[in-house]
Structure formats: structure tokens, C-alpha cells
Amino acid sequence: MSLLATSERLMTPSQIGDISHVAITVTDIDASRAWYTELLGRDPLMDEDTGRFQHVVYQLGATLLSLHGFAALHSEEPFDELRPGLDHIGFGCACQRRVRSDPLATVWD
Asked: For labelling, which of 9, 17, 87, 95 has a CA lying 20 to 30 Å from the CA of 71?
């Protein structure tokens, strides 16, 4: 059962492509930029102050990963996977053993 009538849909399921980007709001943009730069092994594609928020973007194949840092957050509560919202982002890798031996892997557990 569809929530939208066919005439109200912008696209049909067959017209939807890959995910173009994922944007996450972080509590500390500087620490997050450093962590993701080390994790991903590359510098951001874009790092700009939009006036409303700091926008740091990484190119991951055909997908962009954006970090957003706002000067005034509504909440600084730590992440809780039981609260509604984004649970996690999974990155593909060629060798799980190599990932587990990386010092950053302890952060993931």
C-alpha cells in the first residue's frame, strides 16, 4: 500500500538511483574532520562555512559524505542507537582483518 497516490510521486521506484549523499550533524566539526580524514585516508573535497553551518564533504565513489557543524546545536546528547534517527553508516572494505588491525577500529566496537 502506497502512502502517495501515483500522480503525487516525484519518481517511480525504477527511476531512483544510488544514494548521492549522506549528511550528518556532528557536535565538534574540527574533531570530526580530523577523524574522518584519517579514517578515509583523504582530504575533504570541500570545506566551507556556509554562514549557517560548517560543511565538510568527502567523495566516496559516487557518494558524498557531508559533515555539518552548527554553532548552536539543539542538543549535545551523545549518540544513542535506540533513539529514532540515523543508526550507522557502513563503509565497504576489501579486507575485514586489515580493518580490525587499524587503531581506529577500536572506536567502531
From this structure: 87
